[in-house]
Write a structure and sequence with these properties.
By secondary structure, the protein is α+β, with helices and mostly antiparallel strands. The chain has a domain at 324-360. The protein has helices spanning 2-7, 12-21, 37-46, 50-67, 75-78, 161-169, 245-253, 256-268, 279-301, 309-319, 326-331, 333-348; strands spanning 80-90, 109-118, 124-131, 151-153, 173-177, 184-189, 200-210, 216-227, 232-238. A nine-stranded mixed β-sheet has the order 3-2-1-4-5-9-8-7-6. Helix 3 crosses helix 9 and helix 4 runs parallel beside helix 9 (279-301). The protein starts with a helix and ends in a 13-residue tail after the last helix.
């Protein structure tokens, strides 16, 4: 399945042909036979997708220290988590899709990947899947397991005041946007320092009402912030009353990081064609795409030379079945080539037939 993810194959037939083209190297991977298409399909249907999820999380936990960005000096951002979801459309109605049923034809299915990343990293540290029609706020229960003092930001699609109250009770700080139809009561205005960002228009304590007949209350902080760059007004809410209003705005701005991750995944491991037409096979393929993304991110994090992620994917895709020291090559591609030339010259320096040297280049 990793072979499928790296090579970008669209079908089981294409995958088997790709493996056959590299049959002379498969024994080095511990494979003494080539799986049949029917066996491949049945394995994706029967093998639990959580096996792949456990492999992903095992690799992530083992190398988490390498993934952390040491350049991130802000202590608040180092304890920041970012949460969002991305929807993957399916051509068949395997899972319930979002939106209304079309007047003509069948509605496409869809699977939603609910994801949490750390701001200091750029890979998911928690992933859950659901049908695309399921509301995002159902995933908020997963967040209650974060360590006290953690900060998490998400968009207003995750609105659930009861869960927000749970965050407060567990000393987990959230930052999100206030919905336009939110029912709240302003209690008191908070002091805005003279040297505060000019975009901070209001900072106040509010009470949000929710539950049966709106009788339950959640104490929060509302910040009105004018983004002069985009000429847009934002209304943030948070249960943290210690951080400055500017820092709250910055934390929400960091949410864009997860959107860039989703873009990276979809551009380099496009999940448009699936090798199976059942929920389990689809989840397996998504997990392996996530794992491929994690492995390349790990390679990239160990390099001193700067590489664009898409360029690295292209190189690894081309060299996947070749014998090459990937770290050595990516650090100095030209130097790696010069070493090969030097080795070949040393090999033939005492040859009686130096003219055949060129035949090996």
């Amino acid at each position: 399945m990793l072979f499928v993810a790296f090579e970008g194959y669209h079908s089981i037939r294409e995958t088997i042909l790709g493996l056959l083209a590299n049959a002379h190297k498969l024994s080095h991977l511990g494979l003494s036979y080539l799986v049949r298409r029917s066996t491949f399909a049945e394995a994706n249907q029967r093998r639990c997708s959580q096996v792949f999820g456990d492999i992903y999380m095992g690799v992530y936990r083992r190398h988490a220290s390498v993934l952390a960005d040491s350049r991130l000096s802000d202590a608040d951002l180092r304890r920041l988590y970012i949460m969002d979801s991305t929807t993957i459309s399916l051509f068949k109605d395997i899972l319930k899709g979002v939106g209304r049923n079309p007047k003509e034809g069948r509605k496409k299915g869809g699977i939603k990947a609910h994801t949490i990343i750390k701001a200091s990293e750029n890979v998911p540290c928690l992933i859950r899947y659901s049908e695309a029609a399921r509301h995002d706020h159902m995933f908020l229960e997963e967040v209650l397991g974060l360590a006290p003092g953690s900060i998490i930001t998400f968009d207003k699609g995750y609105v659930d005041y009861a869960q927000y109250e749970g965050f407060t009770q567990n000393s987990i700080w959230y930052v999100t946007r206030l919905k336009d139809n939110a029912l709240y009561e302003a209690r008191k205005e908070l002091y805005i320092p003279d040297d505060a960002d000019s975009g901070v228009l209001k900072d106040e304590e509010v009470i949000l009402y929710y539950g049966d007949k709106k009788k339950q209350e959640h104490r929060a902080r509302r910040i009105a912030y004018w983004d002069s760059e985009n000429e847009r007004l934002f209304e943030f809410i948070t249960n943290n009353f210690e951080l400055s209003a500017e820092k709250i705005a910055l934390i929400y701005k960091k949410r864009w990081q997860i959107e860039l991750l989703f873009k990276q995944l979809k551009q380099n491991f496009p999940l448009k064609y699936f090798l199976g037409d059942n929920e389990n096979a689809i989840e397996i393929q998504i997990w392996t795409a996530m794992l491929a993304n994690l492995l390349i991110t790990l390679v990239r994090s160990r390099l001193k030379r700067k590489w664009a992620f898409s360029n690295m994917v292209s190189i690894i895709r081309q060299q996947l079945m070749n014998y090459i020291d990937i770290y050595r090559f990516l650090e100095d591609p030209e130097g790696s080539w010069r070493e090969i030339i030097k080795e070949n010259k040393m090999k033939y320096q005492n040859s009686l037939f130096p003219e055949i040297e060129g035949a090996y280049f």
